Amino acid sequence: MELLSPRLFKALGDPSRLQLVLRLAEVGGTPCTVGHVAAGTDLDVSVVSRHLAILRDAGVIECVKRGKEVWCAVRTEALARTLRELADALEVCCPPAATCAVPPRPARGATPKRAPRGREEKKDE
């Protein structure tokens, strides 16, 4: 799984797909059929199947076809490793001790004053 893969973030960024990942994770890594996964949601089996395909393509889950059924399981170790590596990379580039000076927000209703464009103040010499 690539650390900053847009495909990974897209897969995990959808609430329905995240719910499906959590549902698969709750069974402790035991593979489940698409129908079993769909039974725990209010989504149609075809929609669940499409969501699972996106998760599979992102490397979040693995699926195996057995006869007419497709069995899916979370790739727990790979997913945890990728998320851990991302957290480590963030801590290296942005240590917790580093602070960012964020300018205060203007008061509600107040508009920031700006100098007119093209006009510079004349300085006395």
Task: Explain this structure.
Strands 1-3-2 form a three-stranded antiparallel β-sheet. A hairpin with a 2-residue loop joins strand 2 and strand 3. The protein starts with 5 loop residues before the first helix and ends in a 32-residue tail after the last helix. It contains five helices and three strands. 46% of the residues lie in helices and 11% in strands. It has 125 residues and is mostly helical. Helix 1 packs antiparallel against helix 4 and helix 2 packs across helix 4.
The number of helical runs is 5
Shape: elongated
Range of strand content = 5-15%
Helix-strand topology string: HHEHHEEH
What is the helical fraction, as a range of percent?
A: 40-55%
Average predicted confidence as pLDDT:
83
Largest sheet: 3 strands, antiparallel
Biggest sheet strand line-up: 1-3-2
Q: Tell me the distance between the termini.
A: 64 Å
What is the tally of beta strands? 3
Low-confidence runs of at least 5 consecutive residues: none
Radius of gyration: 24 Å
Structural class: mainly alpha
